[in-house]
Specification:
The protein is α/β, with parallel strands linked by helices and 243 residues long. The two termini are 36 Å apart. It has eight helices and 15 strands. The protein is 30% helix and 32% strand. The strands form four sheets. Strands 2-1-3-4-5 form a five-stranded parallel beta sheet. Strands 10-9-8-12-11 form a five-stranded antiparallel beta sheet. Strands 13-14-15 form a three-stranded antiparallel beta sheet, with no helix packed on it. A hairpin with a 2-residue loop joins strand 11 and strand 12.
């Protein structure tokens, strides 16, 4: 799996945060995005950044981890990290991946993370392409599954005009519909074949096959104008040719 899972730690104990931070740093598939001391701060981080997995304490000031998770809709995957065993039923009713009791050993932490990795592989948009020639041959049949309103929706790649980032969500514009899914644009970019898709802006990925015209500042596809970001002009120029 090439994509790293973006993590958030929410715990009011500095030592507990430090331990989890250390554990995350030892696992290549995990990337720590932020570490905070309370649920209110966590709300702001989730609103501003893409988070895949939360390591969440339960007993915290102002708002418990249980109530915090109830208020997230949709929520990233969650592993509870707590000193209290009596909330386990509530945690699993909220579809938590695991429930770790402090003090947490690294071996137990790793076992929990492996559950996430297996789930991530099974639910993420995975394209198994053995080589570039086979990929091109099979492109018409390639599809991804994305979670849309608690269901996994099948989307054929050949039908995607563009993808737009909406913070923690993405909007996928196809030939006949619009789909809003809970996923970051960076995660979806990692599973799209570069022969047919191009990131042209921090908020946009376009389907190359649908380009009608392009310039240094925008790309037109099916009557829709997509801006070219300043930091993406070089890659767009390299991919599409000189202006």
């Amino acid at each position: 799996m090439n994509t790293r899972i973006k993590c958030l730690i929410v715990d009011d104990e500095p030592l507990a945060r430090e331990i989890i931070e250390n554990y995350i740093s030892r696992i290549d598939h995990l990337e720590l995005i932020a570490s905070c001391a309370n649920a209110l701060e966590a709300f702001n981080i989730i609103a501003d950044k893409s988070i895949d997995l939360i390591f969440l304490d339960i007993q915290m000031p102002d708002l418990t981890g249980i109530d915090f998770l109830k208020d997230l809709n949709p929520s990233p995957k969650v592993i509870f990290t707590t000193a209290y065993s009596n909330y386990a039923v509530d945690a699993f009713n909220l579809e938590a991946i695991d429930y770790l009791l402090k003090p947490i050993e690294f071996s137990r932490f790793l076992k929990s993370v492996n559950k996430v990795l297996k789930l991530y592989k099974s639910t993420s948009a995975l394209l198994e392409l053995s080589n570039s020639n086979e990929a091109e041959t099979n492109y018409q049949d390639l599809f991804i599954y994305l979670k849309v309103e608690k269901k996994m929706q099948k989307i054929f790649l050949k039908n995607i005009l563009f993808i737009e980032s909406l913070k923690n969500y993405i909007k996928i514009k196809t030939c006949d519909r619009e789909i809003i899914a809970y996923k970051s644009i960076s995660n979806i970019e990692n599973v799209l074949p570069s022969t047919h898709f191009l990131r042209v802006h921090r908020s946009f990925i376009i389907g190359i096959d649908y380009i009608d015209a392009f310039s240094t500042t925008e790309i037109e596809l099916k009557g829709i104008k997509i801006p070219v970001g300043r930091n993406y002009k070089a890659s767009v120029k390299e991919k599409l040719g000189y202006f």
